[in-house]
């Protein structure tokens, strides 16, 4: 039950009330805001951009359907974050053996060797993330990939900062070990 | 090894793209496909839209006098029936539950829970000036109740002395209290 992290909670509350009053465009504004806020997080957590898109769509629709039951509209962001995180874990688990083998479009300026190296690194990190528990994976992505401050992560995950530092430490060990094996 | 780790993560971040505008397109299309996908009922929406109201001063004054008179009658009747006593408004079978929190630095503490619609503005604690302990007593029906303390309007915390903590379904914890059929239960 952490405090809403980013954005303006009061503005979120207003948008939620407008949606409940029948204004679907207001929901579009919430979608814009939280795709920007959590889009990269979803891609990293799902290990794939397409899976992240699916997870986000489902999360937004689930949130919309459950909006009447949201007790604190000002805390839409933190509430949606939990729904999205669960969707991402589900999608990642379902597609675990495919996602890390996906290829990505890489800027044309990169040489084939560099592209290959980048792809190997990405696949190695994704495989290491597969080895982590959901809690470690969420924390690692928020801290190490996104670079969010511990205080903000503590609010999002409702965990103490010392506990989060422990999680990051353990996750780093797993990722480091995987990278060591990458020649 | 740190360099290799940092370099690898930097490379990973470079390739990380958010899903982009297709998410919004898909979500809004899915909601529109539901036909009457709007959340609110049409009659309910009326209450949320601004309306222009024209008022005649003489008529408005008459209405105000009428409303004030009705209010006074209701207040007198409530007093005669003992309506001023908060215990008289307790639901049948309810018991009084006292909540306490030691938070000497807090400026305000509220109680939000399943029993008051998770409102953080309806049940406020009072502080003992000598001890700094905040407390409030509320009537609760027997059964399970989830709740949190709201400090200074923006910090939601579980009760440090709660009998139990339960997952709220979104990965966070609520305090839980079980009220028996008799007696006062302290949280």
List the helices and strands and how they pair.
The complex is a heterodimer of chains A (183) and B (187).
Chain A: H1 9-20, H2 24-46, H3 49-65, H4 76-94, H5 96-99, H6 112-131, H7 134-145, H8 150-157, H9 161-180
Chain B: H1 2-14, H2 22-32, H3 42-45, H4 57-80, E1 95-102, E2 109-113, E3 126-127, E4 133-140, E5 143-151, E6 155-157, E7 164-167, E8 173-179, E9 185-186
Helical content of chain B (DSSP H or I, runs of 4+): 25-40%
Q: Kindly state the mean pLDDT of chain A as a whole number?
A: 85
Largest interface: A-B, 57 and 50 residues
Number of helices of chain A: 9
Strand content of chain A: under 5%
Keywords, please?
heterodimer; A: 183 residues; mainly alpha; 0% strand; globular; B: 187 residues; alpha+beta; 5-stranded antiparallel β-sheet; 4 helices; 28% helix; extended
Commentary on this structure:
The complex is a heterodimer of chains A (183) and B (187). By secondary structure, chain A is mostly helical. Chain A is built from 9 helices and no strands. In chain A, helix 3 crosses helix 4 and helix 7 packs across helix 9. Chain A starts with 8 loop residues before the first helix and ends with a helix. Chain A has helices spanning 9-20, 24-46, 49-65, 76-94, 96-99, 112-131, 134-145, 150-157, 161-180. Chain B is α+β, with helices and mostly antiparallel strands and 187 residues long. Helix content of chain B is 28%, strand content 26%. Chain B has 4 helices and 9 strands. Chain B has helices at residues 2-14, 22-32, 42-45, 57-80, and strands spanning 95-102, 109-113, 126-127, 133-140, 143-151, 155-157, 164-167, 173-179, 185-186. The longest helix of chain B has 24 residues, at 57-80. Chain B starts with a helix and ends with a strand. Chains A and B meet through helix 1, helix 2, helix 3, helix 4 and helix 6 of A and helix 1, helix 2, helix 3 and strand 6 of B.
Summarize the structure.
With 183 residues, chain A is mostly helical. Chain A contains nine helices and no strands. With 187 residues, chain B is an alpha+beta fold.
């Amino acid at each position: 039950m952490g405090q809403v992290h980013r954005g303006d909670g009061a503005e979120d509350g207003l948008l939620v009330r407008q949606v409940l009053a029948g204004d679907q465009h207001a929901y579009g504004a919430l979608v814009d805001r939280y795709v920007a806020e959590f889009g990269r997080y979803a891609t990293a957590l799902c290990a794939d951009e397409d899976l992240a898109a699916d997870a986000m769509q489902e999360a937004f629709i689930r949130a919309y359907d459950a909006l009447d039951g949201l007790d604190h509209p000002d805390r839409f962001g933190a509430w949606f974050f939990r729904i999205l995180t669960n969707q991402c874990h589900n999608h990642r688990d379902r597609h675990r053996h495919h996602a890390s083998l996906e290829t990505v479009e890489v800027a044309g300026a990169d040489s084939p060797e560099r592209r290959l190296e980048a792809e190997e690194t990405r696949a190695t990190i994704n495989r290491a993330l597969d080895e982590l528990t959901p809690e470690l994976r969420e924390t690692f992505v928020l801290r190490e990939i996104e670079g969010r401050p511990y205080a903000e992560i503590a609010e999002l995950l409702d965990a103490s900062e010392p506990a989060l530092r422990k999680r990051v430490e353990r996750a780093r060990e797993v990722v480091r070990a995987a990278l060591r094996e990458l020649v | 090894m740190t360099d290799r780790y940092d370099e690898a993560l930097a490379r990973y971040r470079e390739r990380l793209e958010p899903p982009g505008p297709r998410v919004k397109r898909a979500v809004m299309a899915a909601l529109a496909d539901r036909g009457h996908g709007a959340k609110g009922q049409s009659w309910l929406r009326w209450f949320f839209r601004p309306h222009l109201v024209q008022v005649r001063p003489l008529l408005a004054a008459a209405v105000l006098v009428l409303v004030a008179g009705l209010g006074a009658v209701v207040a007198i009747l409530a007093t005669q029936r003992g309506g001023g006593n908060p215990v008289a408004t307790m639901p049948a079978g309810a018991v009084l539950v006292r909540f306490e929190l030691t938070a000497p630095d807090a400026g305000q503490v509220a109680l939000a829970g399943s029993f008051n619609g998770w409102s953080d503005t309806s049940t406020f604690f009072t502080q003992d000036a000598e001890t700094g302990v905040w407390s409030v007593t509320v009537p609760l029906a027997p059964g399970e109740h989830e709740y949190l303390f709201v400090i200074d309007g923006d910090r939601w915390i579980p009760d440090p002395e709660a009998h139990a903590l339960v997952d709220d379904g979104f990965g966070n914890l609520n305090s839980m209290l079980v009220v028996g059929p008799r007696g006062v239960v302290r949280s």
